[in-house]
Design a protein that fits this description.
The chain is mostly beta strands. It has a single domain (5-184), classed as Roll (Thiol Ester Dehydrase, Chain A), CATH 3.10.129.10. The chain has one helix spanning 81-99; strands at residues 5-6, 16-17, 27-29, 47-52, 55-61, 104-116, 125-135, 139-149, 166-180. It has a 7-stranded antiparallel sheet with strand order 3-4-5-7-8-9-6, with helices on one face. Strands 1-2 form a two-stranded antiparallel sheet. Strand 4 and strand 5 form a beta hairpin. The protein is elongated. 26% of the residues are buried.
């Protein structure tokens, strides 16, 4: 059914999803995900590129005027770890929206593992790569690898934050539940 959502003979609340199929262009500016059933998120990715029905990359340039940076350490401003997770979530949302039908939403249900390894600073570009695997019960397991590209290295960073111009910022495994947008109504 080319990525369409359909009901099965399973209980009424269960959904069955066909294998996703890439249905749109591979590169697009990032829209802010639907806010129908949650607070309006801040834009956590600038653009994304769909590589396949299971793989996507995205980028986020961390700007000094991003509203969530204010007060997130006044003397050493960093992109909050929770926003790294939100950036991954918005990346996965873009993949699901473009490869399944747009009436499907994702809900983060578990952070299986997360490791932050380098701070993401103002001026850094966060580069995200997600590999998504559909599992039973309408769940999506996502392995995300996040790197940063720095135009200039901060000489005041200690050894944990210093390094090459491209460092791993985080690695995580997240689990999402896929739901029909109209299931909330």
């Amino acid at each position: 059914m080319n990525g369409a959502l359909h009901k099965s003979m399973a209980p009424a609340a269960a959904l069955v999803l066909d294998e996703p199929v890439l249905t749109t262009s591979a590169t697009a500016p990032s829209p802010v995900p639907s806010t129908a059933h949650r607070a309006a998120p801040l834009k956590a990715i600038d653009e994304y590129r769909i590589l396949s029905a299971h793989e996507i990359t995205a980028e986020k340039l961390v700007r000094a005027d991003d509203p969530y940076l204010e007060g997130h350490y006044p003397d050493f401003t960093i992109y909050p770890g929770v926003f790294v997770i939100e950036s991954v979530t918005q990346t996965v949302h873009a993949l699901v929206e473009q490869t399944w039908e747009s009436r499907i939403e994702i809900e983060l249900t578990a952070i299986k593992s997360v490791r932050f390894t380098s701070p993401v600073l103002v001026g850094d570009t966060l580069r995200i790569r997600c590999l998504c695997t559909y599992v039973e019960d309408n769940r999506l397991t996502v392995k995300a690898d996040c790197h940063i590209d720095r135009n200039e290295l901060d000489p005041d960073l200690d050894d944990a934050g210093a390094g090459a111009a491209s460092d791993r910022a985080a690695r995580m495994t997240l689990e999402f539940r896929l739901v029909r947008a109209d299931a909330h109504e």
